[in-house]
Amino acid sequence: MLRQxxxxxxxxxxxxxxxxxxxxxxxxxxAQETCKATCLLCxxxxxxxxRPLHTTVPRSKAEDRKEMLASMPxxxxxxxxxxxxxxxxxxxxxxxxxxxxxxPSRLFDGIPYSQLNICDIKATKNNTIISLNDHKGKxxxxxxxxxxxxxxxxxxxxxxxxxxxxxxxxxAIAKGFKDPxxxxxxxxxxxxxxxxxxLSMGGMNVVSITDSTRVSFAPTARARxxxxx
Amino acid sequence: MRHASFIARTVLVQNGNVEQAVRLxxxxxxxxxxxxxxxxxxxxxxxxxxxxxxNYTKCKAIYNEDMDxxxxxxLRKNRVEPYPGYC
Lengths: 229, 87
Hints:
The structure holds two protein chains of two kinds. Chain A is an alpha/beta fold. Chain A has helices at residues 2-20, 28-38, 61-71, 87-91, 158-175, 191-201; strands at residues 107-108, 111-112, 117-123, 128-133, 139-144, 181-186, 206-211. The mean pLDDT of chain B is 91. Chain B: One of its GO terms (cellular component) is ribonucleoprotein complex.
């Protein structure tokens, strides 16, 4: 529907050109009047037309792709916290923020930390997959952006990740996994921050956040060559 | 060497403030160079690119050091004549 609404002005300009000739360019009002005189969509004969007119203007794939990419949200790697400095944090005590030797046995809602469920978030450039696992590693639930209805490019966005987080949290609570959860994030991608936000918005009790991004400072097997765009 | 699960690179959430915890862990990971290293190792960086990058970083560090010294010097407060050359 929206496409037709966008195309209508183009049809007018086509008709305007055909009525006035290629060389002449009438003033705005005159052009509209001549257009209305001849146009089938808005002219005097439009009331007699029962069927809507469907016309398509030739569009190139490159144009469409450019439009789509321009309408997409900006690339977000989910690491906006990198450069901000929280002054309040400096004054707080760091005892409760980082885990220590007592944390695995510390109770959260009556469950020791080491036996809480784990929520693995894999945030890649093109998608975000969230899975809920047992403390032993047994898989309980799995949701991804594609399962939420987003397809292709839209999967690699923070909105999709947030929706996935909310969906998983709500389904987990509905299934009975109401216990506090520790989150483990992997990878840098748009959904890194939004997925966790979505989880907490959906009602999940997030107790800790771990980063398990696979990084090596040592020489590794040769990675694939750079993409040349 | 793998980091100990749920002890290293972990931040506990305080008062249900999940966003603050996420920002904190992102900040620490960024400051310690994990995220940059991840980005560098995604694709292979050819030796000439590595040399270029390292030389650029060295030059930038030298420039920043001297510039910071200059700024610190200019921002000194206990001067004999606060506005030298000003009539």
